[in-house]
Structure formats: structure tokens, C-alpha cells
Design brief:
The chain has a single domain, classed as Ribosomal protein S20 (Methane Monooxygenase Hydroxylase, Chain G, domain 1). It has 3 helices and no strands. The model has no long low-confidence stretch (mean pLDDT about 95).
Amino acid sequence: MANHKSALKRHRQSLKARERNKAVKTRVKNATKAVRAAVELKDSDNASKALSTAYSVIDKAAKKKVIHWRTAARKLSRLSRAVNNMQ
């Protein structure tokens, strides 16, 4: 454990950031699951709505640098392809 005042503060900050990042990653996973579930059920209306939500969630995660921008692009591409192939 850190002893210096600045190191203790940095540790507290890292714990807060970890919680925030975990929440963002969970949101990304849930949005992805929603799109995949709609594609499995061949529900094009729900799939397109879920894709729109997923775009927003994934872009925000990339903007906050929780996930790498190329990872975000790859996820969006694969989800879009799945929805487009379904129709």
C-alpha cells in the first residue's frame, strides 16, 4: 500500500475510475447482447433499435477511452453486419 499522500490519492482515484470503467463495459456488453438476441429472434424492428442504442453506448465507451477506438469500430461493424444479414 502507498505511503505518500499523492500516491494514496492516486490509489483512490484509480479505484473510482475502475468502478466507472466497469459500469461502462457492462453497458457495452448488455447493448451487444440485446442486438444479438434480436438477431437470433429475427426481429428486425427490435434489432435496429437495439443497434442504434449499441452505437451510442459503444461510441461513448470509445470516447471515454474505456475501450480502444478500433475495438469499438470492430464491434459496431460486426453488429451492423449481423443486423443487415438478417434482413
